[in-house]
Amino acid sequence: MRRHLLFLLALALVVSLATARRASAYPQFQFSSGTNKCSQCHYSPAGTGLISAWGRDESADTISMGGNGAFLHGAWTPPSWLALGGDLRLAGIYNDVGGPEAPEWAFFPMQADIYARAAYEAFSVNVMVGDRGIVRQEDNSFTGKINTVPDRFISREHYLMWRPSASGPYARIGRFFAPYGLRLVEHIFWVRRYTGYNLYEETYNLSGGYVADDWEVHATAFAPVPSGAPTFFQAIGPRESGAAVYAEKRLGGIAALAIQGRLGFASEADRYQLGAVGKLWVEQAKLLFMGEGDVIRQRLVGASNSQIQFVSFLNATWFPIRGLMFGASYERYQEDLDVSTTARNAVDGELNFFPWAHFEVVLLGRYQWSPDAAGISTPGAWLGMLQLHYYL
Amino acid sequence: MPTGKIPPRLLIGLGAVAAAAASALAGCGSSSDVRPTQWSYIAPAIIEPSCATANCHSAFAARAGLDLSTRNTGYTQLLGRHFVIPGHSDTSEIIYLMKAVGAPRMPPDFPLPAADIDLIARWIDDDNAMNN
Q1: CA A260, A265, A269, A272: dihedral to nearest 10 degrees?
Q2: Region B3-22: what's the mean pLDDT?
Q3: A302 in contact with B at a CB cutoff of 8 Å?
């Protein structure tokens, strides 16, 4: 058994040297697993990233069909001041957007992240290191800054946190995603992509907040990664500076309502966002409903033009038995509310199967479409994805 | 712990969120496109969020040698490499790529709305609007 676990650890480290992707968070588990707030299962006060001892217990006892959720399946327990973890994902995709080369099949290592947290009294240092996952790497057409092996590594999170207790005030400084939105795992969802939370868009932040049993609030001032910083730290996306606020109220242990705002200023465009998030757990039906809607005023600096955008996500997730969940979602993104033909729509179906603690199989299907305009037809697009996920 | 009862205030709040989101189903705005045919609009509003992503034409990946992560680099490279031929959307490769005519579709994860392709074509055809 121990030899098997050591092999898995060695495999995990080897794969982590070869690829990577995203911060893991499952907003579906709030309320449905009996936990009231995201920070019960994650060390981060707003959820995402390394899971806590409580989260590891839940991953085996509530979420999976069995097993031991502890680090290395319990074969070795780190000292109390240290927490370690990792995420490995292999993926296969079917992608059909029309055209002479569609459909496309691709298989790739999607994520290999390792996490470490070292704590001393109320202070902790939290670090995540992984590889920039690459889809379609077989065509050798990369000419940017990620051709050499060292340049492929990235630290998307590294921060110092003061948090004297699980409930109450906290503060942290460093790199991470400012708390905002549903904090979905999949970065392809438009409420992540078009609100400043796409892949590798983590910013440098000074953040603080208060987490209570039935409410929490997070406020963050953020700045882009310095342009001269090593490749290891560099981000993607607009180089925005600004602030984000997220305030959530939980009611009855079965529902939450949150309001949020974000301001982002950059040389080419400024964004002013206001949104809301809602969740409702219906115990009798084992159904969780959740949604997010954001209105964004984008001011195009050079064009002296402003437009109002809208992005939304509605989801229902069913938990028929322990270890299994089915989700169905509808998404909409409209680039400019004054122009109806700029709308995009998507429906998603997702199956997550947790046969044993540390293991997950994900099946994701997605269809996207937008209206025709100016005599040009816009074809629909299909995406199918299989993920095999293992976490340390 | 769950109490199983939904407070009326919460139902109203959740209903408002759902109504706001559902209102988007019907769509908003006019079918006429009044957006500016300016690169300073097209780059940050359409090209960068759709194309300059982690695996594609960000400064890091620069797939096929094309970096579309900023207005200036995108403009310089699209014209310098003849993806855009000013005044000639009918022969500009970027339009063929976006329509997947004789070439793999760009972006490869989602066809751009026809309105966006049409706007880019009108920008290419408007000589006076090229780099502004």
Answers
A1: 20
A2: 60
A3: yes
